[in-house]
Amino acid sequence: MTPNQITAARVAMAFGAVALFGRNAWADAAALALTIAAIGLDALDGHLARRRKLSTPLGAQLDILGDRVVENLFFTFFAVTGLVSLWVPVTFFARGALTDFLRGLAALTGRSGFGKNSMLETWWGRALVASRASRAAYATLKCVCFSALGLQLTFRHLPAAESGGMSLPWFAWFAQALVAITVVFCLIRAVPVVWEGRRYLGVLAPAAKQIARAAR
After folding, report:
1. b/e string for 36-57 if b means 16 or more Cβ within 10 A?
2. What is the number of structural domains in the chain?
3. Are 20 and 41 in contact, with CB atoms under 8 Å apart?
């Protein structure tokens, strides 16, 4: 499989997981497996692209797009089920829109991806966003967070949970703590992109002039 096909596969797995959660015990087990696979494959597509020298600006953008779709899908689903606040997916939508807008401007100047051609030039920016440690930690955190929320949803649909015998209030607090940590880490990783991306706002002026000239 190509890296782009892996990206498409993990997005499909995320949709499959959301479709299965809450139906029955077997469906919940399959949903959890798909959730782990959808997040875990995020590391595989990048590794495959580097190993086979298939890295392209389009592939880098598709990888980021896949991340956005997966995380927004899960958080929106869990917000609809009442397990997280509506502000959680709203925060991820707003954060993703801002950082991807700045990445898009950087791409117009030839800066894209997470490698040497990345828009991030400072050491702390690369460490927080582009380093393997940061990306692995973020992916692991999202995987554990989504799995915990999925388990909480599973407990809610169990007969024992409905009777109060398996409510596990401590687990609900644990899941909410994971959500809070994931949101904070997400916002922290956005800081370098916003800080370094501000320099690319200048590319809008020449583009606006070209559009104005073409409209005349």
Report:
1. bbbbebbebbbebbeeeeebee
2. 1
3. no
Q: With bands split at pLDDT 50, 70 and 90, how would you rate the model's confidence at 187?
A: very high
Domain hosting 168: range is: 3-215
Tell me how far CA of residue 62 lies from CA of 19, 100, 102, 117, 141, in angstroms: 23, 11, 15, 16, 21
DSSP3 helix / strand / coil % (the chain, rounded to 5): 80, 0, 20
Rounded to whole angstroms, how far apart are CA atoms 49 and 61?
A: 13
Residue 119 buriedness (CB in 10 A; 0-12 / 13-18 / 19+): buried
Model confidence pTM above 0.85? no
Q: Enter the tokens of residue 7.
A: 């990206």
Q: Looking at residue 153, which CATH number applies to its domain?
A: 1.20.120
* Ramachandran bin of 85, using left for φ above 0, alpha for ψ from -120 to 50, beta for the remaining angles: beta
pLDDT, tens digit, 9 for 90 and up, residues 158-171: 665 443 444 567 88
Mean pLDDT of 107-126: 79
How far is 79 from 64, CA to CA, in rounded Å?
Answer: 22
